[in-house]
């Protein structure tokens, strides 16, 4: 018998009918001889409702700190409901099951409430339970700090929970979601997008961080670090009349070495959650960029693309950087507050931009990838404002109005519609 972790997202847990469908999928794996742990999200929309309730409790009075620990107690309850309901449904079907809260396993995290990071998941207790033939149903998104307080992992944290449990049990992780795998690009933007049979951890990590919303970035980081094979599957499949699952398709996220034919480019992503900030006429002192980015780092503002160019004023440069749209106003306020010390003439903030990226491990060994990208964009009249690269990706910042056009042009230029 082999162990398996199955994860169901909020859409898959959306109501009792969908929970029953998830239970049938779990039961089919049990009948196939697998020892199963299941990680579940809250019902779709429930976490937003719980967050709104905490907001409704009011803001703390002057000199009273935020009660982030009690916030976590409230918002972690959505997953407790679905884990209990799935375990109950499985029992009613004749499948031995029980729910395990994060503190019972335990899923140990740091004490950064609302955005905690998993530190350890001892696998002995949970492993013994599944090896005895009992399905263990675990609420995603939640853990427990070393001092015994409930913590939450931040939005999308159930993916990370599932990979962490799979790592603890030394087994693969099947993530059931409302799409049937990872595509070469968003099918809503490009109808000719193709589902990938396999994709490397590195490629998936880049795609997740660049706007692909199939998996949460931290879950891919953990899967890569622990070498957990992850398969993305549709939660809308059904066992046949004999309770047998169809052959698994979806997309397998795995080591690059397991992919026989490596594509030059595996996918094109788009992110509209971008803002461009430009400091015009910044002093060209050697220390100026360091001072700018030290201010941003100390405030927890993440910066992506950086471009410096000569200004019209002698002894000055123009410095442009991008950040997430949510951080844009905070970054702008920091810059305005330090304008005298930084000695720049003018600040510009543009949120009407998008980042389009191409990703592929084949870039390491093939020339001409950048030439293909820039030629495809030029042929469509798309101008780029900034560029950033890594070993396996190229990103450009463009006017948001051209984002979908750029995605379709690049998807065609790299032949991804024929994958």
Detailed description of the structure:
Strand 7 (142-145) and strand 8 form a beta hairpin. This protein has helices at 16-31, 46-56, 68-75, 77-92, 124-131, 157-169, 201-209, 217-226, 288-298, 325-337, 339-342, 369-379, 403-413, and strands at 2-8, 34-40, 97-99, 108-109, 118-120, 135-139, 142-145, 150-152, 173-177, 198-200, 230-234, 251-254, 267-283, 303-310, 316-323, 346-359, 384-390, 393-399. The mean pLDDT is 92. The strands form 3 sheets. It has an 8-stranded mixed sheet, sandwiched between helices. A 6-stranded antiparallel sheet has the order 14-15-13-16-18-17. A 4-stranded mixed sheet has the order 5-4-7-8. Helices cover 34% and strands 27% of the residues.
The dominant shape is: globular
For the secondary structure, the number of strands is: 18
State the low-pLDDT regions, or none.
none
Helix content: 25-40%
| Overall pLDDT confidence | 92
Strand order of the largest sheet: 3-6-2-1-9-11-12-10
Individual helix count? 13
Q: List the quaternary state of the chains.
A: single chain
